[in-house]
Design a protein that fits this description.
Number of helices: 18
Strand order of the largest sheet: 4-10-9-8-7-5-6
Radius of gyration: 23 Å
């Protein structure tokens, strides 16, 4: 012990920007604190409601990042907060009993997920959900191998990282889980070459690659994957952690092709943006082969999984998503948003592509090719564009136009637009107009210089 005082909740709620920054540097993640500080992304936000958050100076920001898909209902939805409050006073963790709230939420998930998905396991996050799904697949099939996609993202814990398709995140932790092999995304021929060996327990896939840069596969890809898995005795795991609960215009993205997976992974918006909760739901036969009977019932458990407060939030969040038809709203607002962005693409060469489905949208930027500036910098301009341009645009949107976005982890040249599903045309118009203001007359160099000035300014005005 150093003798320093313990910080109370009251003191923490009043902490200033510099104090928080210093604590992060000392006790949490110095590199993250430096990175966010350079982009001026370490503002102190003190209030959040619906589509917006407010900083300590009272300035309002539109959140078009949406907790990476965790805020389908927006910030602090009152119906979810009320449900958590109503559940308070009950035992939150009591393993020597069966939790009626967990039982009810499992029932509700079985009613709204496609096909005969029925057995639910509750966890606390998306990556834990993937871990459980991988274990279930191996135990159910007796096979070891897991097939996953290049450019995918399923989490950063050990098993989920082993099926995440970017070496940057895998390399420092190798060797990873054995028996995990990658195939190109949206390539059924490559998938069949792997599955035809009849030794794969599961194929795990995102219906849309989120962190990969919002990559939407060709129509028929998921249906083809389902047919191949059936042909070769492989389980199909669909990761709906980011795309689930209305994000793509259907309640679940796999419903676009009428596909029923053997195991579906859920998290993020299941907790209404209030409580951490994840779940996988499986076909009964798949579950029973792994965990059926008393002797196998406790092979996979979670201390906090399915606790009362989290499942109360899940009950209210799911009910609200259904009552408001947020899947239908996402479809309508997504069409409007994509059309406006594609009009912007026609005007500015810096935009390489606009893609997405519903309200998960990726905006990819071109890299400058050749030119005097690139020659003078010995290729550093293109290198900077490929690694940081998305974050520079995000920084401009945040600091000049009060719009919160971020780049995708596997492709930092893509910014994601993933607002709460309660978004309206007025907020979408504001974001499109802000994007146009960033791009108009600036080009790559202008955005870079402007962002650099912001970063330098933030270094000198810290308080």
């Amino acid at each position: 012990m150093t003798g320093e005082k313990i910080i109370s909740l009251e003191t923490a709620l009043q902490a200033g920007r510099q104090e928080t920054r210093d604590l992060y540097r000392r006790y949490i993640n110095p590199g993250l604190a430096t990175m966010l500080g350079l982009l001026d992304f370490d503002k102190a936000f003190v209030r959040a409601e619906g589509m917006a958050v407010w900083d300590k100076d009272g300035k309002r920001y539109l959140d078009f990042l949406g907790g990476y898909g965790a805020l389908n209902l927006g910030h602090n939805p009152p119906e979810v907060l009320a449900a958590v409050k109503e559940a308070m006073g009950r035992p939150n963790l009591l393993q020597a009993s069966l939790n009626p709230l967990a039982a009810a939420l499992a029932h509700n998930l079985a009613q709204v997920t496609p096909g005969d998905l029925e057995r639910v396991f509750f966890s606390n996050s998306g990556t834990e959900t993937v871990e459980g799904a991988l274990k279930l697949a191996r135990a159910s099939t007796g096979r070891e191998k897991i097939i996953y996609c290049q450019n995918s993202f399923h989490g950063k814990s050990f098993g989920s990282l082993s099926v995440t398709g970017r070496q940057k995140y895998q390399r420092p932790f190798g060797p990873l889980l054995p028996g995990c092999e990658a195939v190109p995304y949206d390539d059924l021929e490559a998938l069949e070459a792997k599955l035809s060996r009849r030794d794969a327990a599961a194929f795990i896939v995102e219906p849309i690659q989120g962190e990969g840069g919002v990559i939407v596969p060709h129509d028929g890809y998921l249906k083809g994957a389902r047919e191949l898995c059936d042909r070769y005795g492989t389980l199909l795991i669909i990761d709906e952690i980011q795309t689930g609960f209305g994000r793509t215009g259907y309640l679940f993205a796999c419903e676009h092709e009428g596909v029923v997976p053997d195991i579906m992974c859920l998290a993020k918006s299941l907790g209404g943006g209030v409580m951490p909760i994840g779940a996988y739901i499986a076909r009964p036969a798949v579950w029973d082969r792994a965990y059926g009977g008393m002797d196998k019932a406790l092979l996979h458990t979670s201390t906090f999984g399915g606790n009362s407060l989290a499942t109360a939030a899940g009950l209210a969040a799911l009910q609200s998503i259904l009552d408001q038809d947020l899947a239908g709203r996402a479809a309508a607002m997504g069409r409007y948003f994509l059309e406006r962005l594609r009009q912007l693409k026609e005007k500015y060469d810096l935009i390489k592509d606009v893609r997405g489905r519903g309200l998960i949208i990726g905006l990819e930027f071109n890299q400058p090719v050749g030119g005097l500036l690139d020659k003078l910098t010995r290729g550093k301009v293109n290198e900077l564009a490929g690694e940081y341009f998305g974050s520079l645009v995000a920084g401009e949107l945040m600091n000049k136009y009060q719009v919160i976005t971020a780049y995708t982890l596997n492709n930092p040249n893509v910014i994601r637009l993933e607002p709460p599903l309660i978004v309206g045309e007025e907020e979408i118009d504001h974001v499109v107009n802000a994007l146009e203001a960033v791009l108009r007359g600036h080009g790559f160099l202008g955005v870079t210089l402007s962002s650099t000035r912001t970063a330098l300014g933030s270094l000198f005005k810290r308080k």
